[in-house]
Amino acid sequence: MNKITQLFNVKYPLIQGGMIWNSGWKLASAVSNAGGLGLIGAASMYPDVLVEHVEKCKKATDKPFGVNIPMLYPNIEEHMKTVVDYKVPIVFTSAGNPKLWTQELKKHDVKVVHVVSSVKFALKAEEAGVDAVVAEGFEAGGHNGREETTTFTLIPMVKEKIKIPLVAAGGIATGRGMLAAMTLGADAVQVGSRFAASKESSANQLYKQAIVDAQEGDTVLTLKELAPVRLIKNKFYQQVAELYQSTPSKEQLVQLLGRARAKRGMFEGDLDEGELEIGQISGLINDIKPAAQIVSDMILEYTQARKELLTFDNW
């Protein structure tokens, strides 16, 4: 057992990202049942919807699972109450100050992990008392850091500065990627895009197919003035790119973005006008398969790749 498997009481150091419109109870429970740590993505859920997903997840698995809650969520008090009332053992927080909720959650024996995009914020999270951090490179899909630090640069820099367990995220969808991240110092990996294209993902089938169809260079990090987001280049993105040519104000960008773009794209399947959030690694995802198979395939490839590395000792 390593630091993360001990901390979460799971078989594998493999965590499924808590992605909006993708990570419902079906996906979270499937990953947990397969030996990883499944997360419910609470950012796209009203308080009563999160309650429903937590209840169903507890019925679907007797293994540990967690909830991902961005600090910017408007009904965060209700979400945190659900975590406490239903004794959810693990919470991943992001997009805000970890000091706001970490100690309160830990009073109720909840393990707290905070997602960061830089060494600076990793140190702040450690200072706030979190149990572990997720260091996410800018290859990742969805909302991201402004620094554009890649995962393979970020992980060793964070590892050098913190003492708590470290999870690598961004651009990891294979066992070989998992091994590479852990060789650089990560205790575990968090995987988003690969699980977005799973049978149990709650996303629209058209969006899942768009992930499979995506090739190298088909995603871009944009809208940094609002909240940096990596998405597939579609009609909506072209509108964003055209607006940038006129040096738009923040208000103009907000007006173009409007409301519910992510829901329209990922949940409703509007491939033209929706926001299709996904990571660069989508260029390596070629199928939609069960979450349990994704877990087993990654662990098998990780084990095989690790054995192959041992042959290098004969140099």
Q: Helix coverage percent of residues?
A: 40-55%
Total number of strands: 11
What CATH first level of the largest domain would be assigned? Alpha Beta
Distance between the termini: 30 Å
Q: What would the CATH topology of the largest domain be? A: TIM Barrel
Q: What features would you describe in this structure?
A:
The protein has 315 residues and is an alpha/beta fold. The chain has two domains: 231 residues, Aldolase class I (TIM Barrel), CATH 3.20.20.70; 70 residues, no CATH class. The protein contains 14 helices and eleven strands. The strands form two sheets. The chain has an eight-stranded parallel sheet with strand order 1-9-8-6-5-4-3-2. A three-stranded antiparallel sheet has the order 7-11-10, with no helix packed on it. It starts with a helix and ends in a 5-residue tail after the last helix. The mean pLDDT is 94.
